[in-house]
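#help-structures

NK: newbie question. if I give both the sequence and a SMILES, will the prediction place the ligand too? trying with zinc ion
OV: yes, paste both and it writes out the complex. here, I ran yours:
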Amino acid sequence: MCESCEGVDLNDPEQRGGGVSRRALLVGTGLGLGLGVLGVGLPAAQAATAKNGKWCNPALGYFPNGGHFGAPRGGVSHAGQDVTNSTGTGVYAAAAGTVIRRQWGGGLTGRTGNGIVLSHGSGLYTYYGHLNAYRVSLNQKVSAGQRIGDMGATGNVTGPHLHFETHNGSLGRVVNPVTFMSGRGVDLGGGWPALDSGASGQRVRAIQHLLNQRGYGLEVDGWLGPTSTNAVKRFQSASGLVADGQVGPKTWPKLVYSLQRGAGGNHVKGLQTALNKRSAGLLVDGDFGSVTNTAVRNFQSTNRLTVDGVAGPITWRALVG
Ligand SMILES: [Zn+2]
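OV: that's the protein plus ligand as structure tokens.
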């Protein structure tokens, strides 16, 4: 996949993710105190929030052979991670941000095809390449999980896939997207996310609705604060899980319900909230009627899942991943 495109010279310090290595060096040499001035040393609570809850899967798919970060590309290295699925598969913003590029190759050297660059602030950028269609405009603000385009095969490729890059420090400082996303609770390509205490956002709202279906009576404020974390721990204990308060790959499957048309309640509110994270635009009323049914089917179709209108574990995982 990608063939000769998206190669950059990782030996070039401008392309190597210098932000991370320099930070490690500073800490290692006892100069870490200066980092707060650079905006890296966040207070603990903010750091926990930044770490997860704000990042999500840009596309469902698998990693093709040779599509990994750093793979040799005609003398240079693959600058991203390829995620393969069919043309038209939804491509979503990995985090909230602003569309700063929407052009061939994202305006980045060596990249080809329709590309989008999102700026997430704090020197973080993501790039989405080979898109079949754009679903956002230049300078548009996007939320995490909002649909920004369709997977495609534009540019120098052998088949449809998303070429996904993560830049840390400044635009051009590419870092391994798999480890970058993993450090933010996301299993790139698909998989349950890991949300720790302190996380916030739509998925936390979904979790609170799902817990309320079981009678926990939580305020749905989208924050995994002490009260909600305690509820997660109690749910984990009651479900035979380790009560660590983290909603991760073991907790999610026990937490979600298999839902279809006719269902009603807080669990449906959780589903509607999760669908909204993926741009469904539903009224969160807890009623699984025709509108929610259509939204589930559209999401399944867009993500190449079985289109049956049943929100089971696989659909849930794709929604919240
Ligand atoms: Zn690629």
